[in-house]
Design goal:
Largest interface: A-B, 62 and 78 residues
Number of domains of chain B: 1
CATH topology of chain B: Rossmann fold
Structural class of chain A: alpha+beta
Mean pLDDT of chain A: 87
Number of strands of chain A: 18
Helix content of chain B: 25-40%
Largest sheet of chain B: 9 strands, mixed
Number of domains of chain A: 3
Oligomer: heterodimer
Order of helices and strands of chain B: HEHEEHEHEHEHHEEEEE
Strand content of chain B: 25-35%
Strand order of the largest sheet of chain A: 13-14-15-16-17-18
Shape of chain A: elongated
Largest sheet of chain A: 6 strands, antiparallel, barrel
Order of helices and strands of chain A: EHEEHHEHEHHHHEHEEHEHEEHEEEEEEE
Number of strands of chain B: 11
Number of helices of chain A: 12
Radius of gyration of chain B: 20 Å
Chain lengths: ~425, ~220
């Protein structure tokens, strides 16, 4: 059983709602394979009613025909307004009254048939096949088959547009995260199932919440690698919404996912184990909920001489992008003396002797300076609105610890300790 | 009787006495400091190692050396920084590949403990560091032994080295290895008040392992 829609509106989208095999026959004609729909709806009449009802719901104005073969359905949809159902074996009888021009014969053939007085389907269907083959050739024979409703062919299927999004109108406004999580779980499960059936995964989730105040709240989650882990998606969305809660109760939820090919990778036997990307993303999101946003990531040095300048790269993209380096350093030649930074720098009271610091007191640190090196003057960014200028000393206090002390226009500060 | 007979049969096949209760020795991760590795054999994987000592005792230099070793082996490491004291510039200079390091800038020991627990449960890390180096001793001591035991259990049977840095030992019996750092002397160059430079620091790391005490001395040089 095939169905044909001829008219205007979103014909293709409507057809894909009923069948995965859809042919765009002409700009205003769409044919679909309706076999199997009887199991869902019952008799062909019921199938036709279901399609017609949905068409009126989505605003499609089209004539609909159901027939045992695609071409008969196309002819009926183009020839008869409203809904037509052609029973098996009655194709020629049903289509007989239609004008032959509907089949779109070539100009030469049309003129010949006009001269013969053949103007309707039943006229053409009544002609003997042998005589047609002798006088009109294969095109004439094909035209006779179409007129009799006997032409059999396969549909040329249209690729389904990859649009994975789902939405849900809530019966009452939801202002708590937990009930919203149930709604999200339902949407995520549906979308992931659709992705999985097409052998796809996703690396981006876009959530759009309509609020009671008519405002919208949008969140986008990006994953380092494509995945189909519904539990991880739900937890990530929950954590994100907990950190960025909507300003008012939610009345409508719309979730879209970006379809991408799933990642296929085989790890080597001798490659060190690394955290699973999606699991790591989830772990980092959980930690971020504990320590605060922007406080978890991979540090990156900034190309400047400004002290304590760094950037924190968010997410796990850095680890995915990190290429294996053939750096094998079993032992460093020299162990480097490292610093521990005080953030923010500790304001210090400093006593000077002969222009050099001789005593320091700061929060938790107090002592006489036994040894020092400095000052070293550094400055930069004087061409910007945020310049810096400081004199630095390395000092050894009477408690035995080594610190870095600096003096800037704002006063004296302890930057950190050598450790 | 049957068990004894089976044991005897196995021992005859294997050609020696069989230690039924013997646990395989843990794999070791070198610290990157030859003196420390020669003395301790490295840091045991699947175990908790404590690095303790006062300020300017070489704890951070030792820690960054361990991270440099792990990241050079293409392992992903995590540093949970309880007082936000980590210096990325020092780490890069010490050879740590920053793109293989996750830095959790926590505020307080309790949050840091939770973050470390989540990271260990997540799995797949070469080294997880819980840095309580600047946490006041009283606050660090408030972490219950149960929490340390939980961390130790979580890291067991994994290839992860769990390192805790603090001013004093907090994990006590939960730590498989303890490295107690102490400064010996700072090394300066140049005449006093004229072109004087901090050249480095000499530190001693006393380790207690299997009832053997060793005290390797290493020198950390200034950048």
């Amino acid at each position: 059983m095939f169905a044909c829609l001829h008219g205007s509106g979103a014909l293709t989208a409507l057809a894909f709602e009923f069948s995965p095999v859809v042919e765009q026959t002409a700009p205003h004609t769409v044919t679909l394979d309706a076999s199997g729909l009887d199991r869902l709806f019952g008799l062909p009449q019921d199938v036709a009613v279901a399609i017609a009802r949905r068409a009126s719901e989505v605003g499609v104005a089209a004539s609909l025909a159901l027939a045992p073969n695609p071409d008969a359905a196309i002819c009926a949809a183009r020839g008869f307004p409203g809904v037509s159902i052609i029973p098996y074996g009655d194709e020629a009888k049903f289509l007989g009254a239609l004008p032959l021009a509907l089949l779109g014969p070539s100009q030469e053939l049309r003129e010949t048939l006009e001269r013969w007085g053949i103007r309707r389907f039943d006229d053409m269907a009544a002609l003997p096949p042998l005589g047609i083959a002798e006088r009109l050739g294969p095109e004439g024979l094909h035209l006779r088959e179409l007129a009799r409703g006997e032409a059999e062919r396969k549909l040329v299927p249209l690729a389904e547009p990859l649009c994975f999004e789902d939405e849900l109108e809530l019966e009452y406004p939801v202002d708590l995260l937990e009930p919203l999580a149930f709604v999200l779980a339902r949407l995520i499960n549906g979308l992931v199932t659709r992705l999985a059936t097409r052998g796809l995964a996703t690396n981006e989730l876009r959530l759009r919440l309509k609020l009671e105040t008519r405002a919208t709240h949008e969140r986008t989650l990006r994953l380092p690698v494509p995945s189909l882990d519904t539990k991880a998606f739900l937890k990530l969305l929950q954590l994100d919404l907990a950190a960025h809660a909507p300003a008012a109760p939610v009345v409508h939820v719309r979730l879209a996912v970006e379809p991408v090919k799933p990642q296929a990778a085989q790890s080597g036997l001798f490659v060190p184990v690394t955290p699973e990307p999606v699991k790591l993303e989830l772990t980092l999101a959980r930690i971020q909920a504990i320590v605060g946003e922007g406080r978890v990531g991979s540090p990156e040095l900034v190309d400047t001489h400004r002290p304590d300048a760094f950037r924190l790269k968010k997410g796990t993209d850095a680890f995915i992008a990190a290429r294996p380096k053939n750096a094998s350093v079993p032992f460093l030649a020299l162990t480097k003396l490292s610093m521990r930074i005080f953030r923010p720098p500790r304001a210090a009271r400093v006593a000077l002797t002969s222009g050099q610091p001789s005593f320091v007191a700061a929060d938790g640190i107090r002592g006489k300076i036994l040894d020092l090196a400095g000052p070293w003057r550094t400055s930069g960014d004087w061409w910007t609105a945020d310049p810096w200028l400081r004199d630095e000393w390395d000092i050894a206090l009477s408690d035995g610890a080594l610190y870095r002390l600096y003096c800037c226009p704002r006063g004296w500060f302890l930057e950190g300790s050598y450790d | 009787m049957i068990a004894a007979a089976l044991k005897k049969q196995f021992e005859s096949v294997l050609g020696g006495p069989l230690e039924w209760q013997a646990r395989p020795a843990p794999e070791m991760l070198p610290s990157g400091i030859r003196e420390v590795d020669d003395a301790t054999g490295g840091l045991p994987r699947g175990c908790l190692t404590e690095i303790v000592g006062p300020a300017s005792s070489g704890r951070t230099s030792l820690l960054l050396s361990i991270l440099a070793q792990a990241t050079a082996r293409e392992e992903i490491c995590a540093l949970v920084d309880a007082e936000d004291a980590f210096d990325p510039a020092s780490a890069a200079a010490a050879g740590v590949q920053l793109e293989r390091l996750i830095w959790v800038r926590s505020r307080g020991a309790e949050r840091a403990l939770k973050a470390a627990d989540l990271l260990i449960q997540g799995g797949g890390f070469g080294v997880v560091v819980l840095d309580l180096g600047d946490t006041p001793p009283a606050a660090a001591r408030r972490i219950s032994l149960t929490s340390w035991f939980r961390l130790r259990r979580a890291v067991e049977h994994t290839p992860t080295v769990l390192v805790a840095v603090a001013r004093q030992s907090n994990a006590r019996t939960c730590a498989s290895l303890m490295l107690e750092c102490a400064r010996e002397r700072a090394e300066w160059s140049g005449a006093r008040r004229a072109s004087r430079l901090l050249r480095g620091m000499r530190a001693r790391a006393t380790s207690t392992k299997r009832n053997m005490i060793c005290s390797p001395v290493f020198t950390a040089v200034a950048l």
